[in-house]
Q: What sequence folds into this?
């Protein structure tokens, strides 16, 4: 057995010397090293940008997923580069990790991307196209640095998975948004968007303003009924000038302090940049974001904004996100209806 | 004539509705609208990532540039998406912009990317492969929101152009770096890198630490002779683990507060992320940066860092950058030797 690296580089087949996320192919042999954890996988939660791309490319989603995993040893969409996360039970813990607060049989969700997780699928059991989820008979490997969360006992695994999958964005918002801020959330109707809305509403307080942009009329009703924002704009987030106009209209003509992008289609960078004031923050969480479009786009219109790449990890992100579902019964009800019932 | 937009959308041929930067093709008819400025172009400064890509793709750089501009109506590299900037003289100012502090005949540098600037090249006069510059007989259009700088009288146009081309990065550092910080600058040997090093040295003060990573031994000597950093690491910035080890070694084993990436080749995201402490900042200025590699890379190794997309524009960036050359004679001497002599 090769020397084990805490980042999992011992699993990289090609190209040599890169980290597992950048690898074209990983060794998905399911014999674990002493610093790895073997997981019996129950479900894959495919990243929304990736799942949308696959749905647009083919009608046989299962075959495409198998093709990718067989080729790469991991579920990393070659077009979007993104992965998702998984839920499963701990099958075996490497000897070096025996001091972890984890036992064989524990049900966990991995909080590192599938784009760096060695995976072997034996069979696809079901594809839930409405929630980007694929139930599988599969095994996966978690590296020493791989973060995970034990599933909570006060909610169904489907509910926890749906929230944990996007745990990064709302937790980052909790650290970012301040009282009195005006916040524009593009993609507000999605699950990440709803969690961000909820967190922003808590943070801005009575003098702030939270505006959600979503593409479906039904999402508008849902967001308003649950009190997840002050205003909803129904529009195509790729149309920067429509967004700019409508966003100003519901914010007394003023520019925003912060925009959050959790849209799952490409081409929404400018819609996130134009409505924000100079000195404001543009938080880009969509995996469909283009680095150059954002960088050159802001420069091109002379916008002095701080553009942040959404980091899927921040301290205590799992706890922060699960707490939101516990705090807000209306939000939890929406999630339970869509992603799976209560325990 | 179509209605004129301050962002230049009236010049977009396809696809409809996008901003000029995202357009596949711009209208480069050189009849100006009332809110545009016509420029007689002297030189193009091609973005370093773009020029490197073209050099690697073909030996006939001139033909490739003409092909791109003829096809797109702007000099935007289809692979990297990036542009660069230009220097020229003001040929005509639209009637709506007559109140600008600008006259026909003024020599200016545009500070918006070539990736959104309508351009028509009549002839290529010279290609300076060592400094990514192309002298041309050409005309270009500056939009109402397009930022520019009049060229200073106390330095040669070549020198000013070389500095202004990368004005964003050092000006952002001036706002970011604080006393006592340890700063790792990847790509420290390039012109953007040297300006960043110089700015960081000013900001960190006696208790801070500035470490440059460069790929050439000669750059190490240059940086040290000019006192532009405390330590230099000569290594390939795509090799994340080598960078991690060497960076720790010259920082007393400690992680860095800030890393700045101004490397002009792809695949250096993890080298920027791994050496930085949790809670630290990773500033990505390279146009070769991949959004997904950065976002998923940090998550994959559980790094709680703030990753910022380098914005080529920030308030007063031209002044901040030119001031550096005036303040530091050694830095100015290096720039003059490489990019062009004193006035």
A:
């Amino acid at each position: 057995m090769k020397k084990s690296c805490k980042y999992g580089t011992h699993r990289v087949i090609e190209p040599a010397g890169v980290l597992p996320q950048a690898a074209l192919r990983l060794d998905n042999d399911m014999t674990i090293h002493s610093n790895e954890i073997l997981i019996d996988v129950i479900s894959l939660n495919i990243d929304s940008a990736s799942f949308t791309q696959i749905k647009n490319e083919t009608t046989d989603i299962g075959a495409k997923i198998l093709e990718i995993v067989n080729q790469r040893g991991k579920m990393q969409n070659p077009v979007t580069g993104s992965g998702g996360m998984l839920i499963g039970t701990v099958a075996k813990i490497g000897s070096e990790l025996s001091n972890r607060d984890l036992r064989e049989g524990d049900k966990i969700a991995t909080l590192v991307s599938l784009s760096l997780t060695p995976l072997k699928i034996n069979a696809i059991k079901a594809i839930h196209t409405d929630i980007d989820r694929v139930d599988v008979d599969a095994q996966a490997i978690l590296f020493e640095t791989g973060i995970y969360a034990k599933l909570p006992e006060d909610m169904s695994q489907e509910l926890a998975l749906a929230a944990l999958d996007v745990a990064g964005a709302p937790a980052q918002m909790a650290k970012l948004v301040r009282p009195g801020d005006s916040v524009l959330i593009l993609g507000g109707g999605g699950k990440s968007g709803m969690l961000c809305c909820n967190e922003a509403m808590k943070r801005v307080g009575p003098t702030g303003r939270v505006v959600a942009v979503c593409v479906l009329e039904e999402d508008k009703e849902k967001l308003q009924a649950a009190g997840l924002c002050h205003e909803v704009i129904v529009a195509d987030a790729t149309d920067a000038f429509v967004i700019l106009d409508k966003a100003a209209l519901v914010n007394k003509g003023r520019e925003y302090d912060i925009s959050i992008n959790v849209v799952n289609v490409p081409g929404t960078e400018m819609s996130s940049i134009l409505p924000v004031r100079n000195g404001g923050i543009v938080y880009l969480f969509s995996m469909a974001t283009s680095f150059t479009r954002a960088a050159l786009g802001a420069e091109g219109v002379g916008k002095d904004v701080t553009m942040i790449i959404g980091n899927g990890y921040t301290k205590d992100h799992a706890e922060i996100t699960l707490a939101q579902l516990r705090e807000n019964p209306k939000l939890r009800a929406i999630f339970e209806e869509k992603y799976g019932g209560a325990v």
